[in-house]
Amino acid sequence: QVQLVESGGGLVQAGGSLRLSCAASGSIFSINAMGWYRRAPGKQRELVATITSGGSTNYADSVKGRFTISRDNAKNTVYLQMNSLKPEDTAVYYCNVESRGVKGLQYDSWGQGTQVTVSS
Questions:
Q1: Which conformational region is residue 21 in: left (phi greater than 0), alpha (psi within -120 to 50 degrees), or beta?
Q2: What is the pLDDT of residues 68-118, one digit of tens each?
Q3: What's the pLDDT at 84?
């Protein structure tokens, strides 16, 4: 199994910044894609950003130019730098990691979620 520990959420004023981190541990031989998703109140979960093992990134249109996803492969950690935050970014943010264990098992793991609240 794979465990994910998220950190970095909080309350910030509009225009401010936050940095989310997600560290993976457990039965990990290799990590493929890592990503961040979010669920706002009353809405479905949506993709925020993803990054492949090769460093290719993909962003939701709503965050392009404001958010940056990165990863530290040595630490099995993915980051989300969020700048110019808007009230509509308020949501619970979830980390997702696609990995393979030492015995070849594939894992699709989710973090517990971290609250991001942007006040106007």
A1: beta
A2: 999 999 999 999 999 999 999 999 999 999 999 988 899 999 999 999 999
A3: 98
pLDDT number for residue 99: 95
Q: Which two tokens stand for residue 61?
A: 């249109």
Contact 27, 40 (CB under 8 A): no
Extract the tokens encoding 95: 């980390």
Query: If we measure between CA atoms, which residue out of 90, 67, 61, 87 comes closest to residue 79?
Result: 67
Token digits of residue 64 = 């392009």
Considering only CA atoms, give the Rg of the chain. Answer: 14
CB 107 within 8 A of CB 99: yes
> Which has the closest alpha carbon to 116: 6, 3, 5, 30?
6
Do the Cβ atoms of 7 and 113 come closer than 8 Å?
no
Collapsing DSSP to helix, strand or coil, 112 comes out as coil
